Amino acid sequence: MLVWNRLRYLKDPQTGRRLARPNPPESWIRTEVLELRIVSDALWQSRTVTAGRNRKPQQGDCRTRANCCEGAGVGAPVGVVRAVSPAGLRTG
Length: 92
What we know:
With 92 residues, the protein is an alpha+beta fold. It has a domain at 2-55.
């Protein structure tokens, strides 16, 4: 889908530069362009229906705090180890 008329441009009287301002969504012009699709409609619909279903968090999945390693800090996935080089520099 192509969307036209999303922005309007105004000129700043002090600087002379163009300023982009969004138009309200009601004034947008939407056009279907089937030639630009890379995935068939049937495949897209089947995938969007099943996308959120039956998802189980994996080990190391840190989208929730419950799946993260307690000792590694906030957001560090389980199993991630920060190595220290012989010179004492962190490498990971």
